[in-house]
């Protein structure tokens, strides 16, 4: 079978199944059954798929998702989240769309340092979306910034994915990590610009209710009582990671523990709030894990059947000018990113792209960063960006996939603008690592 | 023409994978029109820990993987882990033939060849390692990264505090001080960039790599005699040539590390002998225990040790 | 028959409660092992291994309950444009497909489980764990998922809302 037939069969079956409304996880499993039968030798291939799923799900790298979810749900159900956001709301006064900005700043800080895109989207989504909707924000004003900043986890250090990419591509790890700092901050800045613009053209998107003026003493009390204790849980989680007390995967457990302790102190912990938190965290975790279970094998089938390798070789087989070639590679990364999982994409493309990029005369560290940006975007591209599903799980009832797709698009646009900026001014990436 | 599909456990850019791909090229060249290996990819095509099952069940025909990834099925792989001789010697004395026979019986795969042998493991530390009055390594206070292969030695003999981590997490764990020491092969530290944090190498080295090519037995038996002969011949040649290539790569790596200021601490005399003996015997002990649990028993235990361990080699 | 039905109806949420306990266990096991490590003690290796296994049991034990709760995400962008009668038909057809996939996986999971016993396979991490203890989760989970999806094939309740993606 030619690579395009394999690609057509695999992508065709999953797209059709999803279009008729099959649950995403089941659509993956069904496409895998077909793919395993065709490419992995019938029944043995289907058993192999269960083995693969077993490997994918029992990986410690997935641990942050349920625990950050638990942390966010606990914040929400114990009333601690409400306390903190009411306080921030009052403190920021009348800035339109203020909680959206808070999300970008908080999300940038937290997701970059936690290093887990899915985990931090889970946390911020379960924590902020319900609060913001309660306060009258339109959905895209809360969902968008959270998914946007979720992707920053892999651009700004520390980033496990960047370390893995540097190792695979044999480029300087330190240089690639440093290269991400300025572009990452620029991206966060673009998000802020985007929010300002969204509020400007649609003032209704963020509530403009009056806030009663407060004295300095009142403000100070609010900060000390409602903001600092909650923030300190996140800060301690991050500090413990940086200080080497625990690994990023372990940090989430301490975050959840911290919120529990805080809830006891603030008398917000009840049997019902605990039960509801576990219930909420479990539901989203199960939904996401079953998708991971199915999509892990789907990625592998694309690789094993030769479909993705064929696509890469075909796309890079043309004689093109360096800049066009770069755009082609970026396009291939985006295309694979819609259907495959990040690590598989790196394993597949690095051995082909990096030698090519060097003959074209681009800096490999710079290209490493562009590649991370493509992977960052792929977290939120329809139809299968994993952050979209995590967000779907944590968003309140009545939020449709369409809402989520629409909220994600402008943020994908920001990332594309950044890629354009980096092509025009490579120094933005290369200045810090001194290359 | 016979065609075999193949996958490899590690990413394409890793030195061990390149060695396997060299083997594939040699087979495809010499076997033109007779036999061809069609490489489908690495862990992105089939997860690295699922590959042994895949070749056993015939999902793929050939896999290049460490024996440690299927230790539950063939615990005899510890004979290679504790070995101190290169593959060419084990091929000559019938060790690999015995190993192949065990693979066929217990796992239904043909053990085609033991590649990239002759490479051993060192302990690498961030801070200067401490020795006690008798010259033994003192590991108290060391935060040592471990895994299923090392731990019998690290915890039971050295009494170290071990933190189990997957290879991909070690860089950031070293960076943040979650661990400050790890075992690793003589080669590859630079590729993983762990040398940014590690400053000492402890000699002598222990253990051996256990990377090999296994082929689904039904597939193997279905090949033409000529195909089988070519595959086996090239594998035997590659057993020897891959060792040579890696020895020179090791010398290059050591020279590069030297230049960056990597210091070497060497255990001497009895301390070194005890250290090596413990690494070996803890591993053999584990192998014996698991062999005894299996219906096939530990009948091959002595034969394996005799063929994969040469007491004279340690004395040098 | 009625008793059997009630037992069945009760088993699924019971499994979900176990899955919830696994989630809590994740937190507890990590907190304990990190604390031990930072106090200079050797954390029990089973703490780490058990948390990885907890991920599997949590996913498989909770999956049938999630079907009942309609918690698996699906997309109704296109189907919501169909006339209502056709929508109901498509919804039942999708449920049939889901049952089919789950039956295939339950069957293959049962085969995997039996071959793990027969071959005495181990999962090798810090310990040698007999693999069947883990893979038994597959036939159990997929069988129950098939039964749960089957309820949407013939019952009054539909898998899909039909309301322009309202309860996707
Ligand atoms: Na980060
Ligand atoms: Na983004």
TrEMBL record, chain A:
The chain crosses the membrane at residues 6-39, 60-80, 146-169, 175-197, 227-246, 252-274, 286-305, 311-336, 343-360, 366-391, 403-425. It is a multi-pass membrane protein. The keyword Transmembrane helix applies. It is found in: Cell inner membrane. PANTHER family: C4-DICARBOXYLATE TRAP TRANSPORTER LARGE PERMEASE PROTEIN DCTM, SIALIC ACID TRAP TRANSPORTER PERMEASE PROTEIN SIAT-RELATED. The complex comprises the extracytoplasmic solute receptor protein and the two transmembrane proteins. NCBIfam families: dctM (TIGR00786). It comes from the Bacteria. Its main location: membrane. The keyword Hydrolase does not apply. Belongs to the TRAP transporter large permease family. Residues 11-428 form the TRAP C4-dicarboxylate transport system permease DctM subunit domain. This is TRAP transporter large permease protein. Keywords: Cell inner membrane, Cell membrane, Membrane, Transmembrane, Transmembrane helix, Transport. It comes from Lutimaribacter marinistellae. Part of the tripartite ATP-independent periplasmic (TRAP) transport system. InterPro entries: DctM, TRAP_DctM.
TrEMBL record, chain C:
The chain crosses the membrane at residues 7-32, 44-68, 89-110, 130-150. The keyword Cell inner membrane applies. It is a multi-pass membrane protein. Residues 26-150 form the Tripartite ATP-independent periplasmic transporters DctQ component domain. The keyword Transmembrane applies. InterPro entries: DctQ, TRAP_DctQ. It is found in: Cell inner membrane. It holds the Pfam family DctQ. Part of the tripartite ATP-independent periplasmic (TRAP) transport system. PANTHER family: 2,3-DIKETO-L-GULONATE TRAP TRANSPORTER SMALL PERMEASE PROTEIN YIAM. Belongs to the TRAP transporter small permease family. This is TRAP transporter small permease protein. The lineage of its organism: Bacteria, Pseudomonadati, Pseudomonadota, Alphaproteobacteria, Rhodobacterales.
